[in-house]
């Protein structure tokens, strides 16, 4: 919980008592120190990391976890441009490389989960989409992620491997935007991660296809160099990579590295 303290000037003793800095360590038996941990995470981690946020805050009284979700490529660029972050969890090695090439991780990233694409359709699959090749049909309104985003890069790899080109009607900035287009009826199909279909709670239906294994997505995580809360950042990574984190991720459909 964040507070704004306004200090008066009437009486030095009163001012000192009323305006002690919230960053000071609490006295014995006092309230826990208030700190903020900022985590930049790929949009496809939304449900898993939101669940882990509650666990982490319960384990670390006084800590507020701020989760910044988005396309991994955008988040990586934000970090390179100086955005304050403690942890970066990306949806591909390539987007993490943007940060490591700039020497902005405290240590080498580690892969904590994997994912694969799935075709999302309206519930009941009214267009009877059964295979990746079906998405080449021009009468289908298919949406995909933009090529610089990990889910878009994975789509492009499958297109190249199969020789099938998808005439997408739009390229979205992240996987959640693709899912939204399908669930709202603005698209017949979209390529998203299997975890996003699971998290939709029936708003879309998933169609698996064997070619998805040719573009498995790794999820690396790293503490950002000179992180404002480096100790908390390391604890967050330990939670994500530990048994508790693995259980939450697995329940959403993520694979093990």
TrEMBL record:
Q: Which UniProt keywords apply?
A: Metal-binding, Signal
For this protein, the record's InterPro entries field holds: ModA, ModA/WtpA
What Pfam families would the database entry show?
Answer: SBP_bac_11
Top-rank taxon of the source lineage equals: Bacteria
Q: Which Gene3D superfamilies match?
A: Periplasmic binding protein-like II
Keyword hit for Ion transport: no
Where does the UniProt annotation place the signal sequence? 1-25
Regarding protein family, the annotation reads: Belongs to the bacterial solute-binding protein ModA family.
Q: What is this protein called?
A: Molybdate ABC transporter substrate-binding protein
Species of the source:
Pseudonocardia xishanensis
Q: Which gene encodes it?
A: modA
